[in-house]
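4.2 Preliminary Data

To establish feasibility before requesting continued support, the project team ran the inverse folding procedure on a target of 396 residues. The structure was first converted into the token representation described in Section 3, and no sequence information of any kind was made available to the design step. The complete token record follows.
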């Protein structure tokens, strides 16, 4: 498998040499500077590619092999095939990527909010910090800060009481931190940063879109883009919902094995594939992550490897060290390696150590939440250790 590293560009504080030192060979990035919904040009992509691939004398070459992500405009999520112009724009961006010989594109289809956490620096027992989704803080935001109409219906009496207690104890600065974490979009997000007012307006636009309508809109998008991807030799890697359940009463349709199965059955072209994210899928106890890897193996074009740990209230979770979460990472890697062994050199699975806790020098430096250098380096080193051990067992 090819070892990837998400890179947020030259100003991100993580250098390309740091990526080399972590042992990765493949860069995962996007044109983050281009606003959502604007078309990427061949020249824009080429410029970023040459920054990554112009290898200084004596250094190991890096290759930009995965685009994560081309954002799917909100209009597509709401209107499906009727969002003609936005779909055209997405296809043009995909073509610009393919023209530059980058053949894996990761994307997601979550409405209004992309990946969501309530806390970015939750202190763990080692003194490192982790991201966390705290169900009570989330409910406090939904019920008392966003004050979403009818939100009460989504919570039990007990949930509401706990959320009220949490909210009453929050200082103004905690309220603004929580609002920023949830509404203003985490790094790499493919949804816009929203004010509370904008958030309410956006939710209003989804008032009549139920789960089946939303799934249908997604299928219409796939019907339009997947055949073009196929012609271009591009593999589409659909990232699961994070967390894999409805938030704010909104539909989410990429949360489980059966969700993926429905999308693959609806649009069976080979290019319609998966970004297998152990961290997102693993949040749900009823997602058997190892079985999902086995079931969809030939459709896995990209993998995010990280671990989450459910807490006393299993809706609350934090991002554990890569081998310390709820999933069996060794069994996951066994499945991925088996699939990888069936593929040609050109079709090897690219994975990246997803997220990392902030530790050691990370704690003194700014980095994109979830993407510190040392925490990810630890994750990649641990994953590489497992891979090496499994490979040597197979060879023996
Ligand atoms: C967070 C992520 C997301 C994810 C995109 C995929 O770290 O996993 O940014 O990459 O939602 O499109």
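Position-by-position output of the design step:
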């Amino acid at each position: 498998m090819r070892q990837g590293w998400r890179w947020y560009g030259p100003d991100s504080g993580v250098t390309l040499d740091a990526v080399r030192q972590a042992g990765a060979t493949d860069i995962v990035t996007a044109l983050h500077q281009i606003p959502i919904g604007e078309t990427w040009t061949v020249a824009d992509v080429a410029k970023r590619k040459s920054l990554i691939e112009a290898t200084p004398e004596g250094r190991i070459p890096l290759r930009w092999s995965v685009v994560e992500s081309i954002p799917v405009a909100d209009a597509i999520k709401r209107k499906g095939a009727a969002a003609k112009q936005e779909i055209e724009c997405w296809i043009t961006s995909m073509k610009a990527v393919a023209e530059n010989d980058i053949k894996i594109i990761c994307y997601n289809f979550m409405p209004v909010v992309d990946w969501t956490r309530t806390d970015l620096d939750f202190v763990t027992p080692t003194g490192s910090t982790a991201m966390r989704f705290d169900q009570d803080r989330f409910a406090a935001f939904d019920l008392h800060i966003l004050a979403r109409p009818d939100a009460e219906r989504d919570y039990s009496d007990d949930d509401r009481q706990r959320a009220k207690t949490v909210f009453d104890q929050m200082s103004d600065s905690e309220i603004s931190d929580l609002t920023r974490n949830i509404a203003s979009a985490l790094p790499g997000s493919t949804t816009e940063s929203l004010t509370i007012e904008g958030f309410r307006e956006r939710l209003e636009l989804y008032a009549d879109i139920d789960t089946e309508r939303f799934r249908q809109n997604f299928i219409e998008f796939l019907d339009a883009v997947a055949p073009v991807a196929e012609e271009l030799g591009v593999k589409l890697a659909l990232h699961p919902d994070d967390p894999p359940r409805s938030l704010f009463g909104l539909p989410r349709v990429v949360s489980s094995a059966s969700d993926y199965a429905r999308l693959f059955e609806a649009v069976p072209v080979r290019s319609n594939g998966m970004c297998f994210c152990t961290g997102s899928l693993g949040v749900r106890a009823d997602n058997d992550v190892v079985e999902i890897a086995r079931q969809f193996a030939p459709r896995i074009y990209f993998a995010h490897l990280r671990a989450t740990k459910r807490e006393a209230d299993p809706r609350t979770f934090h991002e554990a060290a890569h081998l310390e979460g709820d999933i069996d990472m060794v069994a996951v890697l066994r499945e991925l390696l088996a699939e990888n062994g069936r593929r040609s050199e050109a079709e090897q699975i690219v994975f990246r150590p997803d997220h990392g806790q902030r530790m050691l020098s990370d704690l003194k430096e700014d980095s994109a939440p979830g993407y510190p250098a040392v925490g990810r380096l630890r994750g990649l080193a641990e994953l590489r250790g497992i891979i090496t051990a499994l490979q040597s067992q197979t060879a023996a």
